[in-house]
Amino acid sequence: MPLDTSTYALSLLRLDGRRWNELRRIHAQISTQAAADGSAYLEMGNTKVICTVSGPSEGRRGQGQGGEGGKARIEVEVNLAGFAGVERKKRARGDRRIAELQHTLTQAYTSTLLTHLYPHSTILITLHILSLDGSLLAATLNAATLALIDAGIPMSNYLVACTAGSTSFEESDNADPLLDLNGQEEQELPFVTVGILGDGDKVSVLVMESRVQMSRLETMLVVAVDGCKRVREILDGVVREHGRNMVEGAVG
After folding, report:
1. What UniProt keywords apply to this chain's record, in alphabetical order (predicted)?
2. Which pick of 175, 183, 192, 194 has the fewest CB atoms within 10 Å?
3. Which residues contact 172 (CB under 8 A, 6 or more apart)?
4. What backbone phi and psi angles, to 5 degrees, belong to 139?
5. What distance in Å separates the CA atoms of residue 71 and residue 218, rounded to the nearest whole number?
6. Separation CA 233–CA 30 (nearest Å)
7. What domains sit in the chain, N to C, each tagged with a CATH number?
């Protein structure tokens, strides 16, 4: 359903100069790593991610049988650089936050990729977080989608993601929605990450770790889905530009 914007203070600016419904700058490239089957580089504001895809390949690390039921196994590895955040620190191998992120990505692409076309095989998605400033799950999902497209692995549709938040934890009718939160906003405000398939309203990923009123959650979902559609348009442009470059390179 469309969002009624008549009650929101549209003139107010956020700390980074954006209005409530503005995306941060998104920059992306495809085929950035020649040695990988598929690769992509993506920036959402100051969050920067490199993604590589290997496979489908027969087995991995002695597993051999791939996924269950004659389907490919999806594996995700996330590496967070020590210099990615404000504080320089090395993440432990079993870091809970990284494990949760890997699990979410694995579940998302297991249900999105046409894994039945590659029985007894493994598809490995590796993500390197170079800079972290909010919307980490959304950025990794978008980068992985581009890398999978580059690898030529069929999927039911594009999976794109975006975040949306609310201006206050308190039960207040004056709380306004915010689109595409940065790191500082995520530390202070409740927010939700939404991933949709295609250009419709089908939600494939929904992650929220904050408590918020149900009425405000509905507004946040509407804003996030609208943001996903705008991200989809941007990623479509990246894919089209890459396709044109490939054709021109072949002709040349």
Report:
1. Cytoplasm, Exosome, Ribonucleoprotein, Ribosomal protein
2. 183
3. none
4. -65, -40
5. 35
6. 16
7. 26-251 (3.30.230.70)
